Amino acid sequence: MAKPPAHTFTCSACGAVHKKWVGRCDACGGWNTIAEEAPLSAGPKALGAKGRAIPLTDLATQEAAPPRAPSGMEELDRVLGGGLVPASAILVGGDPGIGKSTLLLQAAASFARTGLKCMYISGEEAAAQVQMRAARLGLTDAPVILGTETNLRDILTTLDAERPALAVIDSIQTMWLDTVDSAPGSVSQVRAAAHELVTFAKRRGVAVVLVGHVTKEGQIAGPRVVEHMVDTVLYFEGERGHQFRILRAVKNRFGPADEIGVFEMTGMGLAQVTNPSALFLSDRDAPAPGSAVFAGIEGTRPVLTEIQALVAPSTLGTPRRTVVGIDSGRLSTILAVLEARCAIPFAGLDVFLNVAGGMRVSEPAADLAVAAALLSAREDVAIPPDMVLFGEISLSGALRPVTQTENRLKEASKLGFSQAALPARSKTGGGEGMRVREMADLTAFVGEMFGA
Ligand code: TYD
Ligand code: MG
Predict the structure, then answer these.
(1) Do residues 383 and 449 make contact, with C-beta atoms less than 8 angstroms apart?
(2) Where does ATP bind (predicted)?
(3) How far is the CA of 131 from the centre of ligand 2 (A)?
(4) Contact present, 331 and 321 (Cβ < 8 Å)
(5) Cβ(8) to ligand 1 under 6 A?
(6) Which ligand is located closest to the Cα atom of residue 170?
(7) Can you tell me the distance from the alpha carbon of 269 to that of 99, in angstroms, rounded to the nearest whole number?
(8) What is the largest CA-CA distance in the chain?
(9) Which of 129, 157, 179, 435 has its CA 20 to 30 A from that of 140?
(10) How far apart are CA 449 and CA 346, in angstroms?
(11) What's the CA angle centered on 234, arms 283 and 175, to 5 degrees?
């Protein structure tokens, strides 16, 4: 007699399936990520109908770029790559309470006002609660169709009848399919629900936005496999205690990844921030040691951020290295290069590094500004307040030119900065009225800035 199908154990981070529970996933190395799943019900054994095959040449008349519907919210449209692509599936992830529902209700209202038929389906809040929120955000006049439902079968039936251009599902963790034998929010439910919704989006030409809460490890719960299914993955992030929120494209089949949109959480919902540099630098303290302004590029636009460092004698055997907003591996590398190439040791010193305003910087071009902030803190010498810095530091201590030098300088100049420290051989076309100080390596930088 056939045995009933056994339960499987699936990693909520990478989706790998294991035969038994283990503390650590062999596939991705994650600890405590394995969750038990009920067996999937056996599907039909018969072969499906023949899939449709179309010669690519027959599609030649289609436009190369997908048509897009802009929402009118400039910051959102930029992150989407110009607007909403029909029949696409978008995942918006973020910490609970960061403002995802607020953002998507505003976005749905904005799309609805341009004439698109939009549905907002909440599995977390009652209709009255969503309505109250809409009233608070001043959106009651927007023709968004509201649904409060968690049974995916009912939702798909409604969507099929209504055929909106955009459907927001808030959130994917609350959705459940009666064919899957586990609780809502479990890996198998989330995966199955996401699969159904993405398939529906493609078949019926409805753009679907899935809202997903991330776990404390920073993964969209239930799990990365959802990221693989969708066309676009956006993260809505921000530091608690800061009102800034950043919508970041980490994957986009229809536009550039790494693009960001900047918002500010106000009492009236999310307000767009069209000039993020001015915002991030707005509450800069008086010139103090340990502060350096980095001229960065986020997606297609230059963004200036302040990098702050604090260096203090350590009482610990292993000194502290605390980093917010920058990869900690990058800090270790820069400290090692400073020590090995410039003979400036940080041993015995606690180092704290922070990007002001809750921004996260991932460009290697930030290296020089990080080194400058560290040196400035260590030597107790302030960097000139009208100076921006950028450049990648190689392990040899050489400074490497980075992309978009001109754009960085232009933005800095626009914000009133008048000098820039950057790698030699950077292609600057006159420097936009800036005093450009080109330096070949870190030793030259230390010599020029700190007279050592
Ligand atoms: P919400 O969109 O519910 O977050 P999520 O869907 O990501 O869980 O946002 C909740 C937070 O936003 C809550 O702490 C209150 C705050 N908020 C404002 O500050 N102003 C507003 O106008 C709204 C609607 C919410
Ligand atoms: Mg919510």
Answers:
(1) yes
(2) 94-101
(3) 14
(4) yes
(5) no
(6) 2
(7) 9
(8) 84
(9) 157
(10) 18
(11) 125
| 95 labeled binding residue | yes
ipTM metric = 0.96
> Is 123 flagged in the annotation as binding?
no
**Residue 101, marked binder:** yes
pLDDT for the residue 405:
92
Smallest-distance ligand from the CA of 134: 1
Distances (CA, A) of 213 to 28, 81, 98, 234, 299: 21, 23, 10, 12, 24
Ligand 1 pocket, 97 CB below 6 A? yes
Nearest-angstrom CA–CA distance, 408 and 389: 9
Q: Which one, of 180, 191, 230, 181, lies nearest residue 207 by Cα?
A: 230
Distance CA 74, CA 300 (A): 14
The response to whether residue 96 sits with its C-beta less than 6 Å from ligand 1 reads yes
Out of 95, 100, 102, mutate this one to test ligand 1's pocket (max ligand atoms within 8 Å of CB): namely: 102
273 secondary structure, DSSP code: -
